Amino acid sequence: xxxxxxxxxxxxxxxxxxxxxxxxxxxxxxxxxxxxxxxxxxxxxxxxxxxxxxxxxxxxxxxxxxxxxxxxxxxxxxxxxxxxxxxxxxxxxxxxxxxxxxxxxxxxxxxxxxxxxxxxxxxxxxxxxxxxxxxxxxxxxxxxxxxxxxxxxxxxxxxxxxxxxxxxxxxxxxxxxxxxxxxxxxxxxxxxxxxxxxxxxxxxxxxxxxxxxxxxxxxxxxxxxxxxxxxxxxxxxxxxxxxxxxxxxxxxxxxxxxxxxxxxxxxxxxxxxxxxxxxxxxxxxxxxxxxxxxxxxxxxxxxxxxxxxxxxxxxxxxxxxxxxxxxxxxxxxxxxxxxxxxxxxxxxxxxxxxxxxxxxxxxxxxxxxxxxxxxxxxxxxxxxxxxxxxxxxxxxxx
Length: 398
Hints:
Layout: E1 9-15, E2 20-29, E3 35-39, H1 42-47, H2 50-60, H3 73-87, H4 94-116, H5 120-128, H6 130-136, H7 140-157, H8 171-178, H9 183-202, H10 215-218, H11 234-246, H12 251-260, H13 267-271, E4 278-279, E5 282-283, H14 288-291, E6 299-300, H15 304-318, H16 341-350, H17 358-368, H18 377-397
Antiparallel strand pairs: 1-2, 2-3, 4-5, 5-6
């Protein structure tokens, strides 16, 4: 059934001996004259993020509890326009890009206002909902432990009904530090709240920061960041990133330092990153079992990260190293580098900056500049294809 607004887009109907179905799809010929059919996946766009999913389904839920297909019509049309344009080899015009940016900004602002009115308890329940829990790979037992930890915390500080708009930066951490819940509940509470805050960021909600509770009790930092970092501007951080590229003699250290400012994963994970962890245009620093109970799931690599990874691949190839690691040890190529502190402090000395740890600088940078503008979808696909060639080449050499 063809759509009346977007040519090549419509409803696809099918029936088998056991079932039948309906979905939005496109059927067009690409730039090379080949017939292409693609089906729109609403779950990929909406249900991958529990807060966006809930925000959406609350408005379009049918009486039976399912989301009606008609609710996805407008997003599916937008998807069809992009896909058809890409298949035809047509890049978006400047006006189309501008309108998309305006619409994106408007949607994020609208979502932010909506989420600010939601209480912390409501947001936690969204994350622990059965559908969201299964999407994250969490077991019911693990979700129950997270809920129990939040209930214990709420019984002491009464924060369940506090809205997100009322939570100032750092207030959560202060309340958690003052609580007397057990270390096990403290760890589970941190995991839950960090997932909530991460998803709030993803949909454009207010920035509250990350939660670092109980440092004194099990090794997390309790000391505030050095006051000298308060005077650091974005230009200072960009100077460090540029300096790492130009001043560091060792390509491993310089590229790793730059990636630390782009990726959200811990520095140790970046140092030990593997090519085999890259799938299309994403890097998965944790295994499936680790991702089931941790909020670092993946990092996009179709932005400035791609140039860093491309450089690492070229440098390793020039040295004749064939390793699965981004930054293989020059002595033992089948092991990653273990320390980049010397290069880091040498860089700070060259730039005449205070002696700060890489973790301190990266932490402040991530707090202030947590989001980047990603390239257009066509550029993302081209970069994903290039990354696929690099990874395939690595696999063959191993």
